[in-house]
Amino acid sequence: MELEELYNRFLECGTVTTDSRRCPAGGMFIALKGETFNGNAFAAQALAQGCRYAVVDEAEYAGEGCILVDDCLKTLQQLANYHRRRLKTPVIGITGTNGKTTTKELVSSVLGQKYKVLFTQGNLNNHIGVPLTLLRLTKEHEMAVVEMGANHPGEIKALVHIAEPDYGLITNVGKAHLLGFGSFEGVIKTKGELYDYLRGKGNATIFIQNENPYLNGMASGLDCVRYGQASGLFVSGKLLSCSPFLAFEWVSEGNTYSVQTHLIGSYNLDNALAAIAVGRDFGVEAEDICRALSGYCPQNNRSQLMETEHNRLIVDAYNANPTSMMAALENFRQMQAAHKMVVLGDMRELGEASLDEHRKIISFLDECRFNRVILVGPEFKKATSAYEHFENVGEAIKALQSDKPEGFTVLIKGSNSLHLSQVPEYL
Known about the structure:
It contains 16 helices and 19 strands. It has 427 residues and is α/β, with parallel strands linked by helices. Helix 1 (3-13) crosses helix 3. The longest helix is centred in the N-terminal third of the chain and has 16 residues, at 72-87.
């Protein structure tokens, strides 16, 4: 079937799903494959549950109501790109090693004060999530904010050719997924593929953190809207406090504004300033920007503050890499609290650099002298024997049950696969 005809079928449906367990009435099911599943086998089930069409790429499953294509994943991506081109909605592409999801949320919240905005839900930022996001676009949307993630070279290049962003924002570049990228230089090159695409497009605008030497080195030939802590920028900001919530002031066009947020961590200042720069560039009033930022509350274990009967918790257990781990620990060290404790999980996907990077974290912990340190995972075990260590989160929970902390402020941070999000229940 030709793409245009398939697109017309999509317009009949109005929605796409790749999950046979979630089949909206009249929708279109696209059968994707993974290492442990074959979506083609669920096409009939999707149709029975209410989908109008099922797109498959294996002839044996192409029964009534099915549309046979060569490759379902490529079809999903092509369909999304075709839809994006037809609607011509302005798209802001966001990527970066750390902070891209929070920045996406803040940018969307700010722009939402003036525009009808479509934005990436959760962290659906990969080769499947980006197309699914674009296929949620409607004529009513005035802007789209699309988050793009990567853990291998070339992934951002593939995503930008699906989303075709008009504007770009790289939050930062840091040491993450080194196993996939091969080196820090590989991270820089891959994140820079967003800039490369926009440079080739011509007359494209990026929003850039002014003090970041890596981003500045990558940004030649692009129209730069600059934000940061230096004076005289399009948007300049200054940290006021972070105990524990971030408070800051920002300056634009000679006027100064103050914001009290629900964000934990001084490292979120740049994320907030990025959102302000985007908002001001698109004509959002300063008062509306302040309202959006002060009203935003983080979710999904991303620097969330929790108060239990016994302790005060900072839960940042969604992801961890050397850059974000060090930033979280530095912020926690500076925080005012009588008794401090950290529960840290391994940083994954660091390849040959793993032992060295975990040892750097241990050295920093030695400087911090927190009241109690619990480490979880085999990588930390290789790096030190100086602190309480547990092979997995289950063992750590047993230790917390037998020796439960009282009156502590606790930072919980580690890669999502360590499941440290289970720990707060026992604190």
